[in-house]
Each structure stands twice: as C-alpha cells, then as structure tokens.
Amino acid sequence: MQCYTELTPPTAVTHSISLPFISAQSSNLIVARASLLQIFTTKLVSAELDNAQNPQLQPSADQPYDSRINDDDGLEASFLGADSALVRSDRSHYTKLVLVAEVSLAGTVTGLARIKAPSSASGGDALLLAFKDAKLSMVEWDPAKHSIQTTSIHYYEQEDQQGSPWASPLSFYVNYLTADPGSRCAALKFGLRNLAIVQFKALDEDVDMQDWDEELDGPRPVKEPSTTLANGSSTNQETPFATSFVLRLPNLDPSLIHPVHIAFLHEYREPTFGILSSTSAPSSVLGRRDQLSYMVFTLDLEQKASTTILSVNGLPQDLTRILALPAPIGGALLIGANELIHIGQSGKTHGVGVNSFANQATSFSLIDQSELELKLEGCQIEIATVENGELLMVLRDGRLALITFRIDGSTVSGLSVQLVSSDLGGNIVQTRASTLCKLGRTALFVGSEDSDSLVVGWTRKHSQSNKRKHRLHDATLDLDMDDEDLEDLEDDDDLYGEESAPTKQEPNTVNGDGSRPGELVFRIHDSLVGIAPIRDFTIGVTSDGKAGGQSNQEGVTSDLSLVCAIGKGYSGSIAIVNRAIQPSVIGRFEFPEARGFWTVAAQKPIPKSLQGDRGTASLGAEYEASAQYDRFMIVSKVDLDGYETSDVYALTGAGFEALTGTEFDPAAGFTIEAGTMGQHMRIIQVLKTAVHCYDGDFGLSQIVPMLDEDTGAEPRIEYASIADPYILLIRDDASIFIAKMDNNLELEELEKDDSSLTSKKWTTGCLYEDKLGAFLNTQSDKGAKSGENILMFLLSKTGALHVYALSDLTAPIYVAEGLSYLPPLLSADYTARRGAWRETLEEILIADLGDNTSFSPYLIIRNKHNDVTIYEPFQTTLEPAVELSRSLHFLKLPNSKVANNVEIEAEDDVEGQRTYPMRRCDSIAGYKAIFLPGDSPHFVLKSSKTLPKVLELQGSGVRGMSLFHTEGCERGFIYADSQGIARVCQLPTSNTTYAEIGMPLRKLSLHTDTHTITHHPTSGTFVVGCDVLEPFELPKDDDYHKEWQSEKELQLKPLVARGLIKLINPTTWTVVDTVEMEPVERVMCVETLHLEVSESTNERKHLIVVGTAICRGEDLPVKGRVLVYDIVTVIPEPGRPETDKKLKLIAKEDIPRGAVTAISEIGTQGLMLVAQGQKCMVRGLKEDGSLLPVAFMDMSCYVTAVRELRGTGLCLMADAIKGVWFTGYTEEPYKMILFGKSSTKFEVLTVEFLPDGRELLLIACDPDGGIHILEFDPDHPKSLRGHLLLHRTSFSTGAHVPTRSRLLPRTLPNTSDYLAQHQTNEDSPYLQSPSLVLFSSPTGVLATLSPLSEPQYRRLSFLSGQLLSSLPQHAGLNPKAYRAPISTGAVGRFPPGVDAGMGRNIIDGALLARWNELGAGRKAEIAGRVGFADVDEVREVLGEVLGTSGLGYL
C-alpha cells in the first residue's frame, strides 16, 4: 500500500520541432521532455537590454568574450581603445522562448513530426506524436480551450502486428517517426521490419496547379465547390486522416532485412522516402565491410504500392542516420561514425572522412579531412543557412562544426567540414545535444539530455569592404527603418556580398584578427534549465557563506538540503534543492508590534522658490519620480494592549529609522493600504475610517472620510486597491467606494452609474492596469497611456466576478457568475448544476506574473484555507467586433500545493482571525510575483519559460510584507514573521532559479563529469567522485604482451576515464582539495561510513570510503581498490579561509580480482560491507591501515547496490542480471546467511528497504522503469520456506527510470491517519519511525514512494479511479496502462519473484495531483462517493502524500 509521487518535472529534452502551431502566423517551438510536452513561442529581445537584465547568461570569466566580434566596425573600434567600444551599443537581438502551455502525457514521446493540416481550428499546423512502443497521436491547438486537442489516435501494438513468434517485444526495438514534407503521409518504423503508413488529407496542392500549362495539359479542370458551411464545419463528417496501413519492409524490397534508418525526402511530387539497410546484420568482429545500401522508394498511397527509384550499394557499415535536405541542396546526408556522405536525387555521391579511421573502415570514395579527427557518434546536424549550403553540427563533446556544401547550379559538387573556433563561440554548448531545431533565420534550439538546453543564435562577421553598406543603417543615425528593412538589407548583403559564399574565398583573405570574412559567430540567446541526469544525491547541511550571516539567516534556512550530482561531461554540476525559498537576510530586527509594511517612492514637493520657468528638468535627481529608491515606509502596529497605530519611517541603506516632524498622525489608526498616486506626487494612506493624502514630505493635503451622507453611517474600510489615478475601497457593509485623483492632486469620488454597483454586496475586489491589452483590445501602435486602461475586478457575495472599465462605469464589460464553482474553464456563460457545492472565496487579485523577458496577467483566488487557485485569462479571438463577454475565458492552471495552516489558539483569537491580503510584487529579484502572507507564506512566481508555481517561504507565518528597494537592498523585500522578527531580504539570484522545477534550485558547475556525491557531517563538507577522460596507453609493466609491438601508433586514441575525488566546502561551494586516482582507475562509489578506528578504545569516526575499478582493456582482468579517507583541518591558503580542510588517506586495500562497485555500513561494530567483483565481503578497519575481511557471501555477476537496514544486520544486494538477494549478518560468530532470493532473470539497478509498521518491504528497480515490491515471508506456501521472495506488486515509472535511491525519514502532521494506525500497536519492538524512499532518474525527475495506512489506501485508490474517468487525457493515452508494468512471461520479463500479489497496486500520485483541476461541485460529489467526509478531508490526505510534505527538513 504505497503512493508514488513525482516531486520535480522531467527536465531532459529528448525531442523538439518548430512549426506554426497556435496560429498560422505564429512561430512555435514544441519541446518533448520524455513525458512532458511544452509549447513555446519565440520573442525577439534587444541584446543590450537583455545583457543588462540577465548578466548570468553571458559568457563567464573563463570564456572571455569581446562584444566587438559582432560589430560592423569592430576593427576600427579596436584601434580606438576600450572606451569607444563600450559606447557603441549592441544592436543585435536575442531570440527568447516564452511558454504558452505545457501538457503532461501518460506516455513516453519517441518522435515528433509536423503535419500541415488543411482545416485546423487554430489555422496552425498539426503535430504528430509517436509514443513508446508503437502508438501515434495527432494533436492540434484548440483556441477555445487554450490547450491541445487530439484529432486521431493510431495503435500498432496488436499481437497480429508482431511478425514472427520468436520476435522480441516491441520495446526492444528502436522506432522512428518521419513525415512527408508535403504532409501527405507519415511513416512509423516499429518492431523489426514493420512500417506503418498514416495518410493525411493533404492541402490540395494539385488543385492550385501553379505549373498547369493548358497547351500541354489540356483545359484546366474545374474546382468542385466544397460542402463546407459558413462557420468552417463540413456537412459530412471528415477526419484529418485517411486509413493507415502496415507494410512489411521485405515486401518493398527483399534486401530490406536489417533496416537502419528511414526518412522522407524533399522535392518529390509523390511521397518518397530513403531507407538505409543491409541484408546481413552489421558486425565489426566478422570483418564485414561496406554492406549497407541506400534505397529510395516512391509510395503510391492509393494502390498501397511502391516503386524503387534509386539504389546505392557498398556504403560504410557505420552509417546510422539519414538527414533529408531541402532545396537548393536536395537529396540526403548520411551520417556515420567516421564520415558524412551526401547522395543527390540522381544518385551522385560525395563523401568526406573526418578521422583517420574512415579510410580503414570503408573502401567508399571519400574526401580526406582526417586531420580534423572528429568522432561523429551521437552528433546532431541541422540546417543553418540553406541558401548558402551551411549545416551546423554539434558533436558529442559539445563542439560546433560547420558542414558547407559547394553548389553548382542545382547540383552539389562537394562538401567540407570545418570546426568553429572557440573565439567564434565554438564551445558555447557544453555537452552532447539530443535534438536540434531551427528557430527563425538566425537561431537554433539545442536540446540536451545531459545539461541545460540552449537557444543559440549567430551573426555573420562582415568584411571591411562591406562597411560602407552597413553604415547606411547605423543605429546612431536614427533612420526611419524597422527591423524587417534591416533584415532585408542583411539578406541583400548575404546574397550579393562576397562574404556570403565561403566556398569561393581565397584562403588568404583574412580580417585583422585572423578570421575569414563571412564566418558565423555564435552566441547563447536563452537557456532552459535542466537537472538531468541526476547521477547521485545526498542529504546534508549547506550553510551560507556570508561573514556574520549565520545569525541573520537563523529561522529562514532549512535543517538540511538535497544536494545532487547532475550533468555529464563538461556540464557536470552540483544542484542544491530545497522545499522552500530561503531568502538572504540583509537586516534582522526585533519588531513584535509590526502588522503591515508599505514602502513608497514619492516625489519630493518642489519648493515655491524653485518653481520658475525652468521646469523640473534641471532640479537634480532628488526631484525625479519613479527612478528613485524607496524613501519612506509606513508601518501598521498593534501594541501589547491591542491598541492600533501607524508610524512612518525613513529608509536607509539596509534598514529604517523613525521619521519625526511631519504631519503624519500615528494615532489616526491602523493602516490598511498605502501607496503613491498622482504620478508619485501624493502618498496615500488608507485607514479603517478615512483616506489620508500627503505630499512627498508627509505634509497632509487631504482627508477623505468614510461617511454615508444618506444614512449617516460610517462604514469601516476592510480592503483597498490603488492603481494610479484610481483607488477602490471595500467596506464592512459590503459596499464599495471608488475615487479618482484629478489634475489638482485631489481625490474625488466617482459616480456609480451602474445601479448594481450600489445594490449588490461585494466581498472583495482589486484594480488592474491593463498595459498589455489582455482584457481591452486597444488596437493602437503606441500602446495605452499610463492610467487609461484601468479595470476593476469585483467579487460579489454570490461568488460572481464582475469586471468594469473605470473609464465607463455604466455597465460591467464582463460578468462570470460561476467563479465560486472554480470550473476548469471559466467563461461568461458557464452555469453549474443546481445545488452544486461552492468554494468559499476570501480574496481575488489580478496581477502580472513573469520576468524581464515576458509577463502576463493572472487571476489569483485565495479560499478560506489559504489555498490558491490560478486562472490564466485568454481570448478566443482578437477581433474587435467580438464583445469581451464572448471572447474572454479563464483557464485553471495546475497547482497541487496545499497550505499548512496553524490551529488558532483561543487567547490569540483576534490575531488569529486577522487576514493579511495578497501583495503584488512588481519587481522582486527580476520577477513580477505575488506574495501570500499568513500562517503559510507563499510566493507565486513565474519565469518566461514556466507556468506559475507556488513556492513556500522558509520560516514561520508572515504578518506583513512589502517590497524594499534601496541602495543597500536592491529589489528586495521586508516582512515581519509571527515570532515578531522583521527581516530585510533579497531573493538569491546568482545561479538560482525558482519556477523551473517548482522548487528553489541552485546550480554550481564543476566542469567535469560528476557521478557520485556524499556528505561528511563532522566537517560539514561534501565529497564528489568525478572522471576525466585521457587517451588510453598500452600497459608498460608486468601486463605487457610482446605481440603489442606490432600495434601501430594511433592518431585518434580511445579515451578512458581517470577518477578524481574532490572535496567541496559549502560555505563558498568551491573545490578545496582534489585527489587523483591512478591512470585508468575510475571511481565507482563514494560513501560516508561511521567506522571503528581503534580496536582498543572502540572509537568511531565518520570516514569517506571510496571504491574504484582499474580496467586496462578487455584482455586483462579488472582490479579494484578500497580507499579510506579522513577529512582533517589544515592551515588555509592566504586569502582563502575556506581551504582549511584536506583529504587524508588512512587506509587502502587492493582487490586483485574484481572492481569495488558498492559499499555500505553493516552491523553494530563499525564494520563495512564491500561488494568486490563476485563477492560481498564484510571488512573491518585495522590500525595499520589495512582492511581485515571477517565474513563473505558469493554473488553472481555484478553487484549494483548493497543496503543495510541500519543496525539490524539485514542486508539487500542487487545484481545487474541475477536479481535481489536478501541476507542477514551476525557478529557472534561473524557470518552472512542467505534468507531469500528473487527470480534469477531479473535486472536490478537499485534496491532499498521500506519499513511499513510491522512489515519490511523490499523495493527493487529495473532498467525498464519498473518498481517492484518484494517481501520475505517464510510462512507462505509458495516461498519454499522463504527461499524465494514474494512479489507483491509492480509499477512503471515510464521514462523516469530510478537509478539511485535512498531511505529517508518521513515528516507527518500529528493528525495523520498513518501515524494513528501504527500508534495503536505501540508495544511492538519492531516499529520504525515513518520512512519513505527517494528516487532519482536520468530525466531529472525526483520521486518518492511513501507507505499508506489501510483507510488512506482504500480511499485514494477509489479516488484515482474516479479521477481517471473525470479528467481529460491528452493525446488519447491511458494513465492506467502507462503505470502497468512491462508484460511478463515469454515475450516480456519474467516475474521478479513468486507472484503473491493481493491486487494492491501502487497509487499514482501524478493522477492525485490533478485533483484541483476539477470544479468545486465535481470535487464534492467524488469526495462523498469514495468515502471522505468532505472536500477538506481529501485536501488533508493529499497534503500528506503529495509534493515534498514528507521531506519537511529540506
């Protein structure tokens, strides 16, 4: 009875494609991250502006970058000295990505293809998705729902498609998806030799008949009138696809026995594809050479027949891929390990060998470029500029190379490869790319599974002779040219300038800095943060490094952090992940009476003596408005007697001091809201009884009392919202007051022209300035003037949303009656069922969320539990003729965060009942955000590449919060917590992101392949195991063989890993010590163990134990070593106090046979369990530095993991091929006993114990992503007295294969059902504290497996079944089938143990996390149906099992 929950989304980018998806004119990038589909749009941002806002994107100090590279006048500027180079602005643009939507899929994406749809709802193209094993879904953008809709599903996993009975299951084969460029059909190669052809209703190209010649072709045929109705729907039901059919490849041609790759080709009238295949299986051992052939077939879709039109034989056997090239190049590029071969439409071949193995591996004629010594395995190629015949290649190590085609007329006459030098940006990609995709004219998306994905842009370096032309559009001349004109001019330069054809250049034409004119210069434009692959993780204390900062940080740092080793190769990094935002505190003050803060940046009043003819321009900076820092802070207070006052303070660098001698009246009462109006000329203070207006020096200018002249009542103000020049007040009699500041800087009440404004009762409301035109369609070029498009959003007592434009209060422009039902899609005409349950809404707020690149408005709703619902407004059409009530909709966004509220104590009742409104944060560390004060303080943050995410603030409840922007604390904030402490803070931004994975993430690059990590608690440091690659040398010592004398000296030697151990001090996160291993010795595992170091005193110490493997080639035996290090304190280097720790070797043991692959602590005497080769041995540390073996157990093949349930002697060992062994270890006498085994055909990556009350479960993970629950039960009849482990259940994680796991303590609320169940049998000696297992995967997913109590399991199991039928499933996928384990038996895997399943499946947390997507009525209905008392009880249980609630110490 367990629940599997993913904590972070996948970040490894596996596939990408660009197409106009959202509309016919849009430029979209679709990115697939295994099971997550993201739709981006591109946005051009001025490079100069972006460099100022995001300095971290720019090349760091170890990659010096000269901005003059992109300068047309770069040479002149370099002569003029540095200053003049700084004055010249960077006129280029950066291509940025902005997320439009993201969809979580119950499947693993294996391919994407673009299909031009003749009649999609949005006008854009359709997207064809291929899923593992052989499923296809076609999706389109649905503008009415602001999401994707599935238009067709194709399934090829039936038994009759499998072919021969002895064929392996589908999941064993690599499947390819390729689509015809003319969108007439797509092909999916699946299984061993099957090709599924899906036909589409193409755009009738032939009906347009551009090339119809009436003299030759006869009279032009008459176009038949279509049966389409006026609204675009058809009279007969049409599907976007015709029937699909499956071809056996040998039926096309008998030689297609071993297909390698397939791709559709450009420039053919009929669908035409090329296949790379061979008649015999490729083998380097059998000496087979050049047995591949490339064949081109034309498909006749009507006859389901094909014609061979081209065949090229004798191709090298290391070719792996076909890349179809459009005109003017045409044909196909075949990509191998050592060569590139181009085959034109006529069958003419041109090839180039790029290393010294090319000529040895093939007899095919190739141009020799072996001096490049490139390895093309894992490279990715995409077209850079097709008109110049330039292709960009990203190699496996991240280096960039250009492939240039020489084109004579319409035929290719040759190709060449050239590496991009590092000063032109050739090393900006750090590691292997998984996908390349062209974005616009001069940008490319580089997706990666091993590091961050990048948007890389390029500019062409212009030669001196071209300068004259470029001066025509110099930015400083301010000519009336827009960007498109400039691009056209650049196009002309590319067409006619001599730098556009690098093929015709003389080798001696070089620029002053030694580079050829016309070369491409590459820069990083944008990046998508990735934490994939997570190679290892540990939990440890991470302290902040500021001097004296520890006392300031008290209360806002977590006990522990999750520290992961991520990335591969040069992108190897450390990632620090926490549950909650930990602000960096600049000032900390005792301020127990503070209940609210408002900082204001008001303009000083200009003295009468200065108000002359000169105007204000020459008065100096202190009289300017918004560019200033905040000057004052108004604080509302409640003293110990409950007396409410307000005070004003002047802000200093990082603090504040009381301001006296002004007309501000502290005794006037409690401040509800404060801000500036009249373009920063007036300070507004809203009290409970009146509104006070002050000038910029707190001289009182106006008091607006709350007095109802008709009744004489004085309603009190409960809530206020300011949007210059308007102010909205909500009063305790549910009435509203709206005032506008006139030109004389006086507030005047507005007439409520609409009678419903006075007759209706209002709960809450807010003002919003619609600068972007998201609600009001202002079709003007210059945008709206400040203060014009101000909207008022009101929530009535009946739960309806009313929107008014303040320029016209005669009638609302939009009314949505159903807001309190929180439907998935809110529109003006939404109606709920009669008697449906409503949510109690406390507050609404419309605010911009985003960052410097992109922001947009969102509707944030807070309910009585302080839970947040986020709606994204969108318009189904932007035509001005359509009224807002029909076009404006609100889409509910996913958010499974549950607020943890504190129970209100009776004596603190007044304080407990006080609610603190949500705060807009217009600029906080570069984000536009929203803050929710209260018992469970949260930020709502969003970057341009993510959806809004709700993140907790570390520490106790928050009473009041405000932005704080001063010289000493730029773009920070101030808040007072429930302990009475006020803090002035900033959000850390250096290498830190928040919204990307929904948790604060800090990434620190080590620039080396990092794969293991452990924390040393006594020294507070982290030890990581890394590898560096070195050329392999033949052994010269005892292992030397005489026949090696005849070996030739290789130019391109194989690279082998050499291990490094690095010691990292978390105060500065720098490497303070490095230990190198022997040549060809690599680090396999690093663990911190509590070992006994003295046999006489039995003293124990935390020591670092390292297991290594020495592998010198396949013909010599593998050896291993166990190294034991202590971390000692030394004298630090001058100026580097953090270098006071070093690794000291205290013991080592050479293992003559077998590598040391896993290490664990064992027993109670401080010994270690070492997996060495085919044995697991218990060893003790002797004082002479040796490791004494005391007990052992023989294993099978290769031990991947060993685990001990701490202090019990119970051990689990996982074999890479032969399954799981459950053993026991005794100390009197020393021996190991085998209790039980799993089945012997069972591949295991990691194992873990999971104590659950009185049960002990064994968790095993296989390479297909299966999590298997095993149990040891000697009383079960099928277990042969316990010799065989029982298999309880299995669960599939899809693409997110758990490769590392760790048993961690679990934090639970005191009211937890799980605790209650296990406290009833407290007398049991076996009870463990609650635990969970944390998994990490190569796709960047962190996930937990948590045990559930019996009632929790039953109800959540029913609940997930109800959610399955109530929620829409994207792309027609089935979440239940996705989570079912890979089939067992002859075609799949054998069961991992004796099958004793009780039908208790693991519950899918991803399904439960979608609970909030339901409307309020449906929630109440389902909660009652599955046995919960009410919706609040569902909320409590989900809060316990979802998200990071079980890891409260992070």
Task: Please provide a brief summary of the model.
The chain has 1450 residues and is mainly beta.
Structure explained in plain terms:
The longest helix is centred in the last third of the chain and has 17 residues, at 1350-1366. The model is unreliable at 58-88, 205-209, 223-236, 467-517, 613-626 and 1384-1388 (pLDDT under 50). This protein has 1450 residues and is mainly beta. The radius of gyration is 34 Å and the shape is globular. Helix content is 9%, strand content 41%. Strands 51, 52, 53, 54, 55, 56, 57, 58 and 59 form a 9-stranded antiparallel β-sheet that branches. Strands 85-86-87-1-89 form a 5-stranded mixed β-sheet.
Shape: globular
Strand content: 35-45%
Total strand segments: 89
Integer average pLDDT:
85
Multimerization status: single chain
Estimated structural class: mainly beta
Radius of gyration based on Cα positions: 34 Å
Q: What is the number of helices? A: 19
- N- to C-terminal separation? 25 Å
Low-confidence stretches: 58-88, 205-209, 223-236, 467-517, 613-626, 1384-1388
* Biggest sheet details: 9 strands, antiparallel
- Tell me roughly what share of residues is in helical segments: under 10%
